[in-house]
Amino acid sequence: MSEESKGKSWSFPSTYTILVIALIFVAGLTYIIPAGSYDYQDPMGQIIPAEEASLMSADERKALKLSPIAGTFTRMESRGQIKHLPMAPIKGFADSVEVATFVLFIGGFLGVIAKTRAIDVGIASLMTRMRSRLYLLMAMLISIFSLGGMSYGMGEETIAFYPILLPMMVAAGFDVMAAAAVILLGAGTGVLTSVLNPFATGVASDLAGVSIGDGMPFRLVQWALFAFFTMFYVIRYAKRTQKSPMLSVTHDLNPEINAEILANHQEHAEKLTLRQTLVLITFIATFGVMVFSLLPFSDWNENLASLELGWYFPELAALFLSSSILVGFLAGFNERDIAGSFVAGAKDVLGVVLVLVLSRGLKVVMEEGMIIDSILAFSEQAVQGLPQVVYINVVYFLHIILSIFIPSTSGLAGLSMPIMAPLADIAGVSKSLVITAYQSASGLVNMVSPTSGILMGALMVSKIPYDRFIKFVWKYIATLFVATMVLLTLGVLLGVG
Q1: Are 73 and 350 in contact (CB under 8 A)?
Q2: What is the pLDDT confidence band of residue 1, given thresholds at 50, 70 and 90?
Q3: DSSP H helical segments within 194-296, as ranges?
Q4: What is the rounded distance in angstroms from the CA atom of residue 339 to the CA atom of residue 111?
Q5: H or E element that contains 41
Q6: Transmembrane region positions (predicted)?
Q7: What ranges do the domains of the chain cover?
Q8: Gyration radius of the chain's alpha carbons
Q9: By the 8 A CB rule, do 33 and 25 touch?
Q10: What percent of the chain lies above the pLDDT cut of 90?
């Protein structure tokens, strides 16, 4: 064996590889698992027999809002899918074109925003102005980063803020862990709740056949509670370690860490320009319109039905495309700058689109092989008689385990939602609550997983050993774990849907 071979170490497959393997595996299952279908029921109570339902596509069932009727599974002739496997991703792309366009356009929008540097300069300017009121600054920054996480999955972008915040707080006598936690836990909590995150909630909602706005009020409550707790946890730690430095989880390393952080510190005196201010206003307004367009006003009060826009992925894609052009104009960009930054931003999320295509292809194989309902029938036996409260927490635990092996939120949605979403109908639990369980589990695991590039990059910039971070964060993670279980339980009891 060569030295080169000896030096190679096994690494866990990428999300794309996992999905391709899953495609082949599921195609093989179409020859093993008996094909079949449930009878379905529409919202008016009309029954669609299994024979008729089996001829419908998933999109047709989704449009008619059909739900499987427990105990009505009927076996049918098997439809092996190996020979159709090469076409599965192609059909998956055709089926996911609306959500894929939305993801590409929001990526393009974020690319144009990034080129203006409005967010970077705005947050840096806020840090400079608030340096004499650091506790208030910590609360404000946790709010801002969590808003970014819950609205568009803010993650890698946060790395740029560590070199600004860390020296400022360390110079003021704060612990480096407290400074890093403002950004790391702030954005992480936002991603965990993912109220409107297109790369988590959007992907899962599309695969589950529900609107991205379904369950949004419930997730907003979850975000507010978790963001407030994050402020409490981080600021409490900051106060304790400032008063008694020996309570710091890195107290023996702080002299070396602080010296290195302060040695590399450079003042950031850049201020927001008028153009950047207008860009920030447009950025906030765009997400504000998105939130408003998805609010289910008619569910709250019939008199508010006229306010409901009923937008879905095509309208949201048009919103972000229009806003991209407006932002480019406000920033003073020429046509090449706007187009170039938009395309660059779209390239950054191309991986998410590929995950979408492969995930949809997986669903296509199961649908055309008619094994989704068969798997549901087997699963129905497992959940039969299981209380809804127990079911939703089992779903949560299952996604915790899956998230350890599949750190990609969109990849996890692609593997789990084709089964978990229709199974929710059988269990009598809303699909939106299942989506909340999935993204809460994924977000929680990714906040501590050593396979998370964002986490390990943040710790590297902050000079914090991974084991010390775990020592600091384990009580926080345990609290969010239990709090999520409580909220999911309340969601079932309150009939969140």
Answers
A1: no
A2: very low
A3: 203-208, 216-243, 254-263, 274-294
A4: 10
A5: strand 40-41
A6: 12-33, 93-113, 134-153, 159-177, 182-200, 220-238, 278-297, 309-331, 389-407, 444-461, 473-496
A7: 95-350
A8: 24
A9: no
A10: 31
Residue (of 319, 62, 41, 23) closest to 207 by Cα position: 62
Q: Is the pLDDT of residue 266 over 70?
A: no
* Secondary structure (H, E, C), 350-397: HHHHHHHHHHHHHHHHHHHCCCHHHHHHHHHHHHCCCCHHHHHHHHHH
What's at 97, amino acid-wise? Answer: V
Q: What pLDDT does residue 313 have?
A: 83
User: Under a CB-based contact definition with an 8 Å cutoff, are residues 188 and 453 in contact?
Assistant: no
Retrieve residue 390's tokens.
């127990």
Averaged pLDDT of the chain: 85
Residue 456, classified by CB atoms within 10 Å of its CB into exposed (0-12), middle (13-18) or buried (19+), is middle
Residue 242: CB atoms within 10 Å = 18
Q: Residue 79 gets which letter from DSSP? A: -
Distance CA(365)–CA(82), nearest Å, equals 9
Six-digit token string for 461: 């910039």
Q: Which two tokens stand for residue 448?
A: 């501590």
Helix (H/G/I), strand (E/B), else coil: 76: strand
The single-letter DSSP state of residue 56 is S
- Cβ neighbours for 348, distance < 8 A, ≥ 6 positions apart: 107, 110, 111
The residues near 434 (Cβ < 8 Å, ≥ 6 apart) are 208, 392, 395, 420, 421, 424
Backbone dihedral region for residue 406 (phi beyond 0: left; psi -120 to 50: alpha; all else: beta): beta
CA 354, CA 359: separation in Å to the nearest integer? Answer: 8
Task: Dig out the tokens for 45 from the structure.
Answer: 């109570």
Q: Which residues contact 165 (CB under 8 A, 6 or more apart)?
A: 127, 141, 179, 182, 183
Cα atoms in the 13 Å half-sphere on the side-chain side of 201: 28
Q: What is the largest CA-CA distance in the chain?
A: 75
Containing 68, the helix (H) or strand (E) segment is strand 67-68
> Which two tokens mark 98?
């609306």
Which backbone phi and psi does 174 adopt, to 5 degrees? -90, 160
Q: Rounded to an integer, what distance in angstroms lies between the CA atom of residue 470 and that of residue 478? A: 11
